[in-house]
Write a structure and sequence with these properties.
Elements lengths: L5 E6 L5 E6 L8 E2 L6 H4 L2 H7 L1 H16 L9 E9 L3 E8 L2 E8 L1 H11 L3 H13 L11 E5 L8 E5 L4 E2 H7 L5 H16 L13 E5 L2 E5 L15 H6 L4 H4 L1 H18 L1
Antiparallel strand pairs: 1-2, 2-3, 4-5, 5-6, 6-8, 7-8, 9-10, 10-11
The structure holds adenosine-5'-diphosphate (ADP) and magnesium ion.
Length: about 270
Protein backbone atom coordinates (compact mmCIF):
# COMPACT_ATOMS: atom_id res chain seq x y z
CA UNK A 1 0.00 0.00 0.00
CA UNK A 2 3.01 2.36 0.22
CA UNK A 3 2.92 5.35 -2.00
CA UNK A 4 0.56 3.80 -4.52
CA UNK A 5 -1.57 6.40 -6.17
CA UNK A 6 -4.12 5.22 -8.61
CA UNK A 7 -7.02 6.81 -10.36
CA UNK A 8 -10.14 4.88 -10.87
CA UNK A 9 -12.60 6.41 -13.25
CA UNK A 10 -15.99 4.85 -13.31
CA UNK A 11 -18.50 6.42 -15.62
CA UNK A 12 -22.03 5.41 -14.88
CA UNK A 13 -24.42 4.99 -17.75
CA UNK A 14 -26.36 8.14 -16.91
CA UNK A 15 -23.23 10.20 -17.24
CA UNK A 16 -22.33 10.41 -13.56
CA UNK A 17 -18.58 10.25 -13.11
CA UNK A 18 -16.56 9.20 -10.14
CA UNK A 19 -12.92 10.17 -9.96
CA UNK A 20 -11.47 8.41 -6.99
CA UNK A 21 -7.97 9.28 -5.96
CA UNK A 22 -6.53 6.56 -3.79
CA UNK A 23 -3.87 7.87 -1.41
CA UNK A 24 -2.82 5.10 0.94
CA UNK A 25 -0.29 7.39 2.59
CA UNK A 26 -3.28 8.87 4.40
CA UNK A 27 -3.64 5.71 6.50
CA UNK A 28 -5.72 3.63 4.19
CA UNK A 29 -8.01 4.56 1.45
CA UNK A 30 -9.22 8.05 0.87
CA UNK A 31 -11.31 9.31 -1.94
CA UNK A 32 -10.85 12.86 -3.07
CA UNK A 33 -12.13 14.39 -6.23
CA UNK A 34 -15.53 14.77 -7.70
CA UNK A 35 -18.50 12.70 -6.73
CA UNK A 36 -21.35 14.33 -8.54
CA UNK A 37 -24.10 12.19 -7.07
CA UNK A 38 -25.81 8.94 -7.91
CA UNK A 39 -24.73 5.50 -6.84
CA UNK A 40 -21.67 6.29 -4.76
CA UNK A 41 -22.76 9.42 -2.96
CA UNK A 42 -26.12 7.80 -2.18
CA UNK A 43 -24.31 5.24 -0.13
CA UNK A 44 -22.04 7.79 1.45
CA UNK A 45 -18.86 6.10 0.39
CA UNK A 46 -16.54 8.08 2.64
CA UNK A 47 -18.24 7.21 5.90
CA UNK A 48 -18.75 3.61 4.92
CA UNK A 49 -15.04 3.31 4.36
CA UNK A 50 -13.93 5.26 7.38
CA UNK A 51 -16.14 3.32 9.76
CA UNK A 52 -15.80 -0.17 8.44
CA UNK A 53 -12.38 -1.76 8.05
CA UNK A 54 -13.83 -4.79 6.36
CA UNK A 55 -15.73 -2.60 3.97
CA UNK A 56 -12.53 -0.69 3.34
CA UNK A 57 -10.63 -3.74 2.14
CA UNK A 58 -13.57 -4.88 0.03
CA UNK A 59 -13.76 -1.47 -1.60
CA UNK A 60 -9.97 -1.60 -2.10
CA UNK A 61 -10.40 -4.93 -3.87
CA UNK A 62 -13.15 -3.52 -6.04
CA UNK A 63 -10.93 -0.62 -6.93
CA UNK A 64 -8.00 -2.79 -8.00
CA UNK A 65 -10.31 -5.18 -9.83
CA UNK A 66 -11.86 -2.24 -11.68
CA UNK A 67 -8.38 -1.02 -12.63
CA UNK A 68 -7.44 -4.49 -13.90
CA UNK A 69 -10.58 -4.50 -16.03
CA UNK A 70 -9.64 -1.16 -17.53
CA UNK A 71 -12.38 0.68 -15.59
CA UNK A 72 -16.00 -0.11 -14.86
CA UNK A 73 -18.98 1.60 -16.42
CA UNK A 74 -22.07 0.51 -14.58
CA UNK A 75 -25.80 1.11 -14.82
CA UNK A 76 -26.98 3.16 -11.88
CA UNK A 77 -28.96 0.34 -10.25
CA UNK A 78 -26.03 -2.11 -10.19
CA UNK A 79 -23.61 -1.85 -7.28
CA UNK A 80 -20.55 -4.08 -6.79
CA UNK A 81 -20.20 -5.09 -3.11
CA UNK A 82 -17.04 -7.18 -3.15
CA UNK A 83 -14.81 -9.24 -5.41
CA UNK A 84 -16.05 -12.84 -5.35
CA UNK A 85 -13.33 -14.39 -7.48
CA UNK A 86 -11.19 -14.19 -10.55
CA UNK A 87 -10.70 -16.49 -13.53
CA UNK A 88 -8.45 -16.29 -16.57
CA UNK A 89 -11.08 -14.40 -18.56
CA UNK A 90 -13.03 -12.44 -15.97
CA UNK A 91 -13.47 -11.02 -12.50
CA UNK A 92 -16.73 -11.74 -10.66
CA UNK A 93 -18.22 -9.40 -8.10
CA UNK A 94 -20.95 -10.02 -5.58
CA UNK A 95 -23.29 -7.21 -6.48
CA UNK A 96 -26.60 -5.60 -5.63
CA UNK A 97 -28.94 -5.17 -8.57
CA UNK A 98 -32.21 -3.45 -7.74
CA UNK A 99 -32.13 -4.89 -4.22
CA UNK A 100 -31.18 -8.45 -5.23
CA UNK A 101 -27.78 -10.04 -4.64
CA UNK A 102 -26.24 -11.54 -7.75
CA UNK A 103 -22.95 -12.37 -9.44
CA UNK A 104 -21.64 -9.74 -11.84
CA UNK A 105 -19.09 -11.36 -14.13
CA UNK A 106 -17.00 -8.75 -15.92
CA UNK A 107 -14.76 -9.84 -18.77
CA UNK A 108 -11.15 -8.80 -19.20
CA UNK A 109 -10.68 -6.69 -22.36
CA UNK A 110 -8.15 -9.15 -23.82
CA UNK A 111 -10.50 -12.09 -23.25
CA UNK A 112 -13.30 -10.27 -25.09
CA UNK A 113 -11.03 -9.63 -28.06
CA UNK A 114 -9.56 -13.13 -28.17
CA UNK A 115 -12.98 -14.77 -27.91
CA UNK A 116 -14.29 -12.63 -30.75
CA UNK A 117 -11.26 -13.43 -32.88
CA UNK A 118 -11.38 -17.17 -32.23
CA UNK A 119 -15.13 -17.80 -32.26
CA UNK A 120 -16.52 -14.67 -33.89
CA UNK A 121 -18.95 -14.30 -30.99
CA UNK A 122 -19.50 -12.03 -28.03
CA UNK A 123 -18.13 -13.86 -24.97
CA UNK A 124 -20.93 -12.75 -22.63
CA UNK A 125 -23.72 -13.64 -25.05
CA UNK A 126 -22.09 -16.99 -25.76
CA UNK A 127 -21.64 -17.77 -22.04
CA UNK A 128 -25.23 -16.86 -21.24
CA UNK A 129 -26.52 -19.02 -24.08
CA UNK A 130 -24.51 -22.09 -23.01
CA UNK A 131 -25.60 -21.50 -19.41
CA UNK A 132 -29.23 -21.48 -20.62
CA UNK A 133 -28.78 -24.70 -22.58
CA UNK A 134 -27.75 -26.44 -19.34
CA UNK A 135 -30.59 -24.80 -17.36
CA UNK A 136 -33.08 -26.26 -19.86
CA UNK A 137 -32.36 -29.77 -18.62
CA UNK A 138 -34.76 -30.36 -15.70
CA UNK A 139 -32.50 -32.96 -14.02
CA UNK A 140 -29.70 -30.38 -13.87
CA UNK A 141 -31.59 -27.46 -12.32
CA UNK A 142 -30.08 -27.84 -8.82
CA UNK A 143 -26.56 -27.95 -10.22
CA UNK A 144 -26.47 -25.01 -12.64
CA UNK A 145 -26.28 -21.32 -11.67
CA UNK A 146 -29.24 -19.40 -13.01
CA UNK A 147 -28.38 -17.05 -15.90
CA UNK A 148 -29.93 -13.59 -15.51
CA UNK A 149 -28.78 -11.12 -18.16
CA UNK A 150 -26.01 -9.80 -20.37
CA UNK A 151 -25.26 -6.11 -20.08
CA UNK A 152 -22.99 -3.90 -22.13
CA UNK A 153 -23.15 -5.74 -25.46
CA UNK A 154 -24.77 -2.52 -26.72
CA UNK A 155 -21.78 -0.52 -25.46
CA UNK A 156 -23.83 1.37 -22.84
CA UNK A 157 -21.85 -0.17 -19.99
CA UNK A 158 -18.91 -2.50 -19.44
CA UNK A 159 -19.59 -5.95 -20.94
CA UNK A 160 -20.82 -8.30 -18.20
CA UNK A 161 -22.90 -11.35 -17.47
CA UNK A 162 -25.26 -11.30 -14.50
CA UNK A 163 -25.84 -14.68 -12.89
CA UNK A 164 -27.23 -16.17 -9.71
CA UNK A 165 -24.72 -15.66 -6.90
CA UNK A 166 -23.55 -19.00 -5.53
CA UNK A 167 -22.73 -18.70 -1.87
CA UNK A 168 -20.47 -21.71 -1.62
CA UNK A 169 -16.94 -23.03 -1.32
CA UNK A 170 -14.71 -24.34 -4.10
CA UNK A 171 -15.06 -28.10 -4.40
CA UNK A 172 -11.35 -28.60 -3.76
CA UNK A 173 -11.53 -26.66 -0.52
CA UNK A 174 -14.54 -28.66 0.67
CA UNK A 175 -12.67 -31.93 0.00
CA UNK A 176 -9.75 -30.67 2.10
CA UNK A 177 -11.82 -29.28 4.94
CA UNK A 178 -14.18 -32.23 5.09
CA UNK A 179 -11.41 -34.83 4.61
CA UNK A 180 -13.09 -36.11 1.47
CA UNK A 181 -16.13 -35.14 -0.57
CA UNK A 182 -19.60 -36.00 0.72
CA UNK A 183 -21.28 -38.79 -1.31
CA UNK A 184 -23.96 -36.30 -2.36
CA UNK A 185 -21.32 -34.32 -4.28
CA UNK A 186 -19.86 -37.31 -6.08
CA UNK A 187 -23.33 -38.61 -6.98
CA UNK A 188 -24.35 -35.17 -8.24
CA UNK A 189 -21.20 -35.11 -10.39
CA UNK A 190 -22.36 -38.34 -12.08
CA UNK A 191 -25.84 -36.91 -12.60
CA UNK A 192 -24.42 -33.74 -14.14
CA UNK A 193 -22.15 -35.50 -16.64
CA UNK A 194 -24.68 -38.22 -17.56
CA UNK A 195 -27.50 -35.76 -18.22
CA UNK A 196 -25.26 -33.37 -20.12
CA UNK A 197 -24.19 -36.31 -22.30
CA UNK A 198 -27.81 -37.36 -22.89
CA UNK A 199 -28.47 -33.81 -24.09
CA UNK A 200 -25.34 -33.68 -26.24
CA UNK A 201 -23.53 -31.12 -24.11
CA UNK A 202 -19.86 -31.82 -23.56
CA UNK A 203 -16.64 -30.37 -22.14
CA UNK A 204 -18.13 -28.99 -18.97
CA UNK A 205 -16.09 -26.76 -16.69
CA UNK A 206 -15.72 -29.34 -13.95
CA UNK A 207 -12.28 -28.39 -12.71
CA UNK A 208 -12.11 -28.60 -8.91
CA UNK A 209 -11.14 -24.97 -8.46
CA UNK A 210 -14.10 -23.73 -10.47
CA UNK A 211 -17.03 -25.77 -9.20
CA UNK A 212 -18.64 -24.25 -6.12
CA UNK A 213 -20.37 -26.42 -3.54
CA UNK A 214 -23.17 -25.12 -1.33
CA UNK A 215 -25.48 -26.64 1.25
CA UNK A 216 -29.03 -26.89 -0.03
CA UNK A 217 -31.71 -28.25 2.29
CA UNK A 218 -28.88 -29.71 4.38
CA UNK A 219 -27.24 -31.48 1.43
CA UNK A 220 -23.88 -30.48 -0.09
CA UNK A 221 -24.60 -29.71 -3.76
CA UNK A 222 -22.08 -28.82 -6.48
CA UNK A 223 -23.05 -25.92 -8.74
CA UNK A 224 -21.50 -25.09 -12.13
CA UNK A 225 -21.18 -21.41 -13.03
CA UNK A 226 -18.50 -21.16 -15.70
CA UNK A 227 -19.89 -21.54 -19.23
CA UNK A 228 -17.55 -19.65 -21.55
CA UNK A 229 -15.65 -22.69 -22.75
CA UNK A 230 -16.52 -23.47 -26.37
CA UNK A 231 -16.35 -27.25 -26.78
CA UNK A 232 -14.28 -28.62 -29.61
CA UNK A 233 -16.67 -31.51 -29.95
CA UNK A 234 -19.73 -29.32 -30.52
CA UNK A 235 -18.07 -27.03 -33.01
CA UNK A 236 -14.90 -28.62 -34.36
CA UNK A 237 -12.31 -25.91 -34.90
CA UNK A 238 -10.40 -27.90 -37.50
CA UNK A 239 -10.64 -31.10 -39.46
CA UNK A 240 -8.43 -32.98 -37.02
CA UNK A 241 -10.93 -32.49 -34.22
CA UNK A 242 -13.83 -33.04 -36.58
CA UNK A 243 -12.46 -36.51 -37.41
CA UNK A 244 -11.39 -37.29 -33.87
CA UNK A 245 -14.80 -36.53 -32.40
CA UNK A 246 -16.98 -37.97 -35.09
CA UNK A 247 -17.47 -41.03 -32.93
CA UNK A 248 -19.89 -41.85 -30.18
CA UNK A 249 -21.24 -39.72 -27.35
CA UNK A 250 -19.10 -41.85 -25.08
CA UNK A 251 -15.96 -40.49 -26.70
CA UNK A 252 -17.24 -36.93 -26.60
CA UNK A 253 -17.88 -37.19 -22.85
CA UNK A 254 -14.51 -38.71 -22.14
CA UNK A 255 -13.01 -35.49 -20.82
CA UNK A 256 -16.00 -34.92 -18.51
CA UNK A 257 -15.76 -38.38 -16.96
CA UNK A 258 -12.01 -37.90 -16.56
CA UNK A 259 -12.56 -34.69 -14.58
CA UNK A 260 -15.12 -36.48 -12.45
CA UNK A 261 -12.53 -39.14 -11.79
CA UNK A 262 -10.25 -36.37 -10.51
CA UNK A 263 -12.94 -35.40 -7.97
CA UNK A 264 -12.98 -39.00 -6.74
CA UNK A 265 -9.21 -39.35 -6.61
CA UNK A 266 -8.77 -36.07 -4.73
CA UNK A 267 -11.56 -36.94 -2.34
CA UNK A 268 -9.88 -40.27 -1.64
CA UNK A 269 -6.54 -38.55 -1.09
CA UNK A 270 -8.04 -36.07 1.37
CA UNK A 271 -9.75 -38.81 3.36
CA UNK A 272 -6.49 -40.62 4.13
N1 LIG B 1 -22.14 -17.17 -9.99
C1 LIG B 1 -21.11 -17.05 -9.14
N2 LIG B 1 -21.32 -17.02 -7.80
C2 LIG B 1 -20.27 -16.90 -6.94
N3 LIG B 1 -18.99 -16.78 -7.33
C3 LIG B 1 -18.71 -16.82 -8.63
C4 LIG B 1 -19.76 -16.96 -9.61
N4 LIG B 1 -19.18 -16.95 -10.84
C5 LIG B 1 -17.86 -16.83 -10.64
N5 LIG B 1 -17.55 -16.75 -9.32
C6 LIG B 1 -16.22 -16.63 -8.71
O1 LIG B 1 -15.30 -16.13 -9.67
C7 LIG B 1 -14.27 -17.10 -9.97
C8 LIG B 1 -13.94 -17.07 -11.45
O2 LIG B 1 -15.11 -17.34 -12.22
P1 LIG B 1 -15.07 -18.18 -13.56
O3 LIG B 1 -16.48 -18.34 -14.00
O4 LIG B 1 -14.28 -19.44 -13.35
O5 LIG B 1 -14.29 -17.20 -14.52
P2 LIG B 1 -13.54 -17.49 -15.93
O6 LIG B 1 -14.62 -17.66 -16.94
O7 LIG B 1 -12.72 -16.27 -16.16
O8 LIG B 1 -12.71 -18.74 -15.74
C9 LIG B 1 -14.85 -18.42 -9.48
O9 LIG B 1 -13.86 -19.35 -9.14
C10 LIG B 1 -15.68 -18.00 -8.29
O10 LIG B 1 -14.86 -17.82 -7.15
MG1 LIG C 1 -13.03 -20.51 -14.80
Amino acid sequence: MDGIKRDWNASLSNGIELNADRSPALAGLSFTGKVKGGLWSRHNLFFTLANNLNGMSKMGNIESAAAELGGLRLPQDLEPLEVAGQGSRSITFRANYRGDILAMKVYKPDAIKQFKKKHNKNIAVSEMSRNRAFRKIPELLPFIAKPIAVMGHDGKSTLMFLQEFIDGVPLKELAERNKGLPDSVLEAGETIVRNAELNELYELDLSMDDVLVRKQAGVWTPVLHDFNHVPKVEKPSNSFFARAFKGSAEKKSKRDYQLLEQWRAYSQKCSQ
